[in-house]
Amino acid sequence: MTPQTVNAYNYAPFSVVVFTAALLQPPAFEPTQDAALTYGGIGAIIGHELTHAFDDVGRKFDATGHVHNWWTTADDAHFAAKAAQLVTLYSACEAAPGLHVDGVLTLGENIADIGGLQLAYAAYHASLHGLQAPVIDGLTGDQRFFLGFAKLRRGQRRPQALRSDVGSDPHTPDACRVNQAVRNVGGWYKAFGVTPEAPLFLSKALRTSIW
Ligand SMILES: [Zn+2]
Predict the structure, then answer these.
(1) What pLDDT shows up at residue 126?
(2) Residue 134: CB partners within 8 Å, gap ≥ 6?
(3) Which pLDDT band holds residue 163 (cuts at 50, 70, 90)?
(4) First to last CA, the chain
(5) Which one of the listed residues 34, 56, 109, 113 is annotated catalytic?
(6) Catalytic-residue membership of 113
């Protein structure tokens, strides 16, 4: 990657995560912006890359970067069950009418998205040191946190590009990517008062939290 490329990655054989200079600008990061947006933005991306070390591929590497199974059989089974639940959830999302996300192809990215969002949410709350976040423009800190996350994925693609991406890109298309991630995080329900009638509501049994 060049410094000008807006991207980040986790490379398991070297046990590294890399963020480019170009990524460290709005909407992901802005030194003077409200902290809630920063945690929901670059915070969720940092958490995403860290979680990749423990997704369906990264977990096959040990701490020295070698392919080596370091999991107990029971943990392995728990992981597989939760991952299967995520495959079902994401496969149900339509990127366009009739165009379903491939929950298997996108599994690693989806695990990283949800794990990263949980980590960033916990980090944001730790940063408040028990104090109440200010209300800004009528929005609470938690509401701005999740809006900061959604702002990362504003985009438009032609229908043909979307169809091609769904078949080949391991990242879930933007709208499904945001909506499927937040509905697995308990804090999102509290932030917006999401009730069972809401289209994105998931019962607690169907919410998946791996990390
Ligand atoms: Zn990723």
Answers:
(1) 98
(2) 141
(3) very high
(4) 28
(5) 113
(6) yes
Torsion angle of C-alpha atoms 53, 59, 65, 68, degrees rounded to 10: 180
DSSP secondary-structure letter at 65? S
Q: Indicate the average pLDDT of the chain.
A: 96
Find the 168 Cα to ligand 1 centroid distance in Å: 14
**Residue 161, both tokens:** 């590009």
Q: In a 3-state reduction of DSSP, which class is residue 102? A: coil
Rg of the chain taking only CA atoms, in angstroms: 17
The number of beta carbons lying within 10 Å of the beta carbon of residue 145 is: 29
Q: Is 210 helix (H, G, I), strand (E, B) or coil?
A: coil
Tokens standing for residue 187: 């804090």
* HEC letters along 18-58: EECHHHCCCCCCCCCCCHHHHHHHHHHHHHHHHHHCCCCCH
Residues whose CB is under 5 A from ligand 1 (ion)? 109, 112
Catalytic residue among 34, 49, 55, 109: 49
Percent of residues in the chain assigned helix, strand, coil, to nearest 5: 50, 10, 40
In angstroms, the Cα distances linking 159 to 134, 163, 165, 179 are 41, 6, 10, 19
Determine the distance separating the centroid of ligand 1 and the alpha carbon of 193, expressed in angstroms.
29
Distance 134 CA to ligand 1 centre (A): 31
